[in-house]
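Example for tutorial group B:
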């Protein structure tokens, strides 16, 4: 069973949220290396976006299971 949701809006939103999370982590690392504490904001953004990605993946899996249960 694939770990990614099927193509559709949930998959796109999960992928974009994951990309934002990775970019926020990279920005936090750069910020902390430069000695700025603005990296804390980037860490918070990474946390929110990772939760969004997890939510959309989980939502798609539940929808797929619901459709499978309804059809058979």
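The residue assignment follows.
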């Amino acid at each position: 069973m694939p770990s990614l949701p099927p193509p559709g809006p949930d998959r796109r939103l999960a992928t974009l949220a994951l990309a934002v999370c990775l970019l926020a982590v990279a920005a936090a690392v750069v910020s902390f290396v430069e000695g700025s504490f603005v990296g804390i904001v980037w860490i918070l953004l990474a946390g929110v976006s990772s939760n969004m990605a997890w939510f959309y993946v989980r939502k798609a899996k539940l929808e797929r299971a619901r459709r499978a249960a309804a059809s058979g």
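The helical segments are 9-33, 39-71. Compare this with the pattern of hydrophobic and polar residues in the output above.
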